[in-house]
Design a protein that fits this description.
Helices cover about 40% and strands about 15% of the residues. The chain has twelve helices and nine strands. The chain has helices at about 15-20, 35, 60-75, 85-95, 115-120, 150-160, 175-180, 205-215, 225-230, 235-250, 280-285, 290-310; strands at about 1-10, 40-50, 80, 100-105, 125-130, 165, 190, 220, 255. Strands 1, 2, 3, 4, 5 and 6 form a six-stranded parallel sheet that branches. Strands 7-8-9 form a three-stranded parallel sheet. The protein is globular and about 50 Å long.
């Protein structure tokens, strides 16, 4: 067993597993309960990803994935706990079960503010407003540059009211700043890296990182090579480079792990599944990173955010 606790802010495993008829306990994907159990403690945010091909029926697609996650947590409730609160996080970190949060990736499923209340009642605790594309809520990273709509601002306020984390990954730069000025609680960029290291539209520029830090938010380091390096070669060292860069800006309390397992086509050399996430923290130890900082990145920063937002 790895003597480490981790909270991973984003994976697409549930959506993939449901579509392929697989179980969350033991599967052929890159993450499952069995392998998460190799850690002293592991908490995973499972995204209900609304891919573009489902936009015509986005609400039902979202409900199907949420139901799948809830059923799987019920089926394997001796191994995994559905987390909905800070107390659930505390219990999971101190116990023997894996923790599972439900998130939604793609605001196309949101028809009204009442849907936020419904999703919250079903256990959803984070919502990524866009997935690259512009939608009724906001502009996406590959859209026309628009920001939050009037409807989007209403949804942000409702999320803050009910206790749901606002996720700015995949958002346009204007959407990011509109959310910062609208939200009254810290935000999360669940799976976004540093633009200063890898200038990809999905990454956060220095000004965004500073705003996120100032607001007390958290950004989860994405393992997707295209977001890590412009080189054809990608390794764990590239994840460390992004961590060090954000630390240099003052982000000690604002970095997490947002692997994007089962949502990316390739992974860095040396990382083949969730079993290898521990290598990141072994590398941090080897280069002399303070153990308290490493623990913040591993789970404490996200634990703090959950405590504030939920």
């Amino acid at each position: 067993m790895y003597n480490i606790k981790i909270c991973d802010t984003h994976c697409d495993t549930a959506s993939e597993a449901m579509d392929k008829g697989l179980e969350l306990f033991d599967n052929s994907l890159t993450l499952d309960i069995k392998r998460m159990s190799e850690y002293k403690s592991y908490i995973q945010f499972f995204a209900a990803f609304i891919a573009p091909e489902y936009y015509d029926n986005a609400f039902q697609r979202c409900m199907n994935i949420i139901s799948y996650i809830r059923r799987q947590c019920g089926k394997y409730n001796d191994k995994i706990k559905l987390c909905c609160s800070y107390d659930d996080v505390e219990e999971t970190l101190g116990g023997e079960k894996i923790g599972a949060f439900i998130s939604i990736e793609g605001g196309e499923c949101v028809r009204s503010a009442e849907d936020i209340e419904l999703f919250h009642s079903l256990g959803v605790r984070m919502l990524t407003l866009t997935w690259n594309n512009d939608n009724a809520l906001a502009g996406g990273a590959f859209g026309d540059g628009r920001g939050l709509s009037k409807f989007g601002k209403e949804i942000i306020r409702k999320m803050n009211d009910v206790g749901m984390i606002v996720d700015v990954s995949h958002a346009s730069e204007k959407t990011f700043y509109d959310i910062i000025s609208t939200a009254d609680k810290p935000i999360c960029a669940s799976h976004s890296n540093a633009y200063g290291i890898c200038p990809h539209p999905r990454n956060l520029k220095d000004g965004q990182i500073r705003e996120l830090i100032s607001a007390g938010g958290v950004t989860g380091m994405n393992f997707y090579p295209a977001f890590l390096t412009e080189s054809d070669n990608c390794s764990i060292d590239d994840i460390i480079r992004h961590i060090d860069y954000i630390l240099s800006i003052g982000g000690e309390n604002n970095i997490a792990i947002g692997s994007d397992f089962d949502g990316v086509e390739t992974l860095p050399f040396g990382i083949n599944s969730v079993s290898d996430s521990a290598k990141i923290f072994e590398k941090l130890r080897l280069i002399g990173t303070d153990i308290n900082i490493a623990e913040k990145i591993a789970y404490k920063n996200m634990k703090r955010l959950v405590g504030i937002c939920l």
